[in-house]
Design brief:
With 351 residues, the chain is α/β, with parallel strands linked by helices. The protein has helices spanning 12-24, 63-73, 87-92, 95-117, 121-126, 158-177, 199-209, 228-241, 258-272, 303-309, 317-330, 332-342, and strands at 3-7, 28-33, 53-57, 77-80, 128-134, 181-186, 189-190, 213-216, 222-224, 226-227, 247-250, 255-257, 285-288. 43% of the residues lie in helices and 16% in strands. The protein binds nicotinamide-adenine-dinucleotide.
């Protein structure tokens, strides 16, 4: 049994990791989260009554809070997911991305290094700092090719540049100070509890309510879609069995254009929630101005994690999307609170 300190654990992917750790393992979990607009304690409800779960509201950029959290919880693993994560918001306001993703990661690394140095030697060897990052650090692909762990970094948005900077810091803390780190870079996630500013949940909810379905540019941008629960399983495996200093790419083997994704959602919503007043949802599709600097294609070669750690995604895009649409239909109390207050589906990131 290990102790996992999970930063950003109230967000989309972090909460999937925490639900997996509590339901599927015997590990103890401390979530450290600032609860920004993207952090939501409702995401953690399935875990919150378990005695192995605890929550701390704190900013990863606060060195005193990070030092105290590490010293009192004494984790075996720090899994670092806290970040500003939405590309459109990084175009409107890059400052928060530099502050949390770059400076926050630096503060957390310093606190983790001090804590790791204080451990007895046997515990030092088993400790891991796992940094969770994105394939967007590699830039944009043409029609062919895949991102591997050795692809050069070429980030194009303020978001991906801030994540690239944090990856470099984590790597440097390993090479310079010996901190046992692992990194992972994954493709676009989707699934339950996804904040409805992102493409898939936004389109599901707009389609359900008969609202317009915005498609950026010509909709031909390709992403490699990864179900969040497959990702959570991969992250726990990497934290427990990944080699120090190594990075692992995680992808869903599911390349689709954005337009294909939107059409597939329309078909599923028509099937599960037919509405004669709305009619076929595809009629709601509207092509809108593209995101400035929008990357054309991302695709992951997930061969290393398959060969070395034995991970493969369990969901196909079709099975994962169907489950996701059903989840949104079954959980209006979760997204209703967000759509009625925090975020109503407005366009962000036109610069
Ligand atoms: P999210 O936006 O849903 O959640 C981020 C969480 O971090 C929130 O709970 C938020 O409150 C918390 N947070 C933000 N700033 C903080 C701070 N200063 N201190 C403490 N907590 C803070 O993000 P997500 O989609 O779950 O992504 C998690 C991680 O995975 C991020 O590092 C992101 O870059 C990476 N990632 C995400 C995707 C994706 O498709 N969602 C793909 C690749 C990589």
């Amino acid at each position: 049994m290990s102790r996992f300190l999970v930063t950003g654990g109230a967000g989309f992917i972090g909460s999937a990791v925490v639900r997996h750790l509590i339901a599927g393992t015997g590990h103890e979990v401390l979530v450290v989260d600032k609860l920004t607009y993207a952090g939501n304690l409702d995401n953690l409800k399935p875990a919150e009554t378990d005695p192995r779960y605890a929550f701390l509201k704190a900013d990863i950029g606060d060195p005193v809070a990070m030092r105290e959290a590490l010293a009192s919880f004494r984790p075996d693993v720090v899994m670092h997911l806290a970040a500003e994560s939405h590309v459109d918001r990084s175009i409107d306001g890059p400052g928060a991305f530099i502050q949390t993703n770059v400076v926050g990661t630096y503060v957390l690394l310093q606190a983790a290094l001090e804590y790791w140095r204080s451990l007895p030697q046997a515990e030092q060897a088993g400790f891991r700092f796992h940094h969770v990052s994105t394939d967007e650090v590699f830039g944009s692909l043409g029609a062919d090719g895949l991102f591997s762990e050795t692809t050069p970094y070429q980030p194009n948005s303020p978001y991906s540049a801030s994540k690239a900077a944090s990856d470099h810091l984590v790597r440097a803390w390993h090479h310079t100070y010996g901190l046992p780190v692992v990194l992972s870079n994954c493709s676009n996630n989707y699934g339950p509890y996804h904040f409805p500013e992102k493409l898939i949940p936004l389109v599901i909810l707009n389609a359900l309510e008969g609202k317009e379905l915005p498609v950026y540019g010509d909709g031909g941008q390709v992403r490699d879609w990864l179900h969040v629960e497959d990702h959570a399983r991969a992250l726990c495996l990497i934290a427990e069995t990944g080699l120090p200093g190594e990075s692992y790419n995680v992808g869903g083997n599911a390349e689709r254009t954005n337009l294909d994704v939107v059409r597939a959602i329309c078909g599923l919503v028509d099937r599960f929630a037919p509405d004669t007043a709305i009619g076929p949802r595809e009629k709601l599709i509207r092509f809108v101005a593209d995101r400035p600097g929008h990357d054309r294609r991302y695709a992951i070669d997930a061969g290393k994690i398959a060969r070395e750690l034995g991970w493969r995604p369990q969901e196909s895009f079709e099975s994962g999307l169907e489950k996701t649409v059903r989840w949104y239909l079954d959980n209006p109390h979760w997204w209703g609170r967000i759509r009625s207050g925090l975020y109503r589906g407005e366009r962000l990131g036109l610069s």
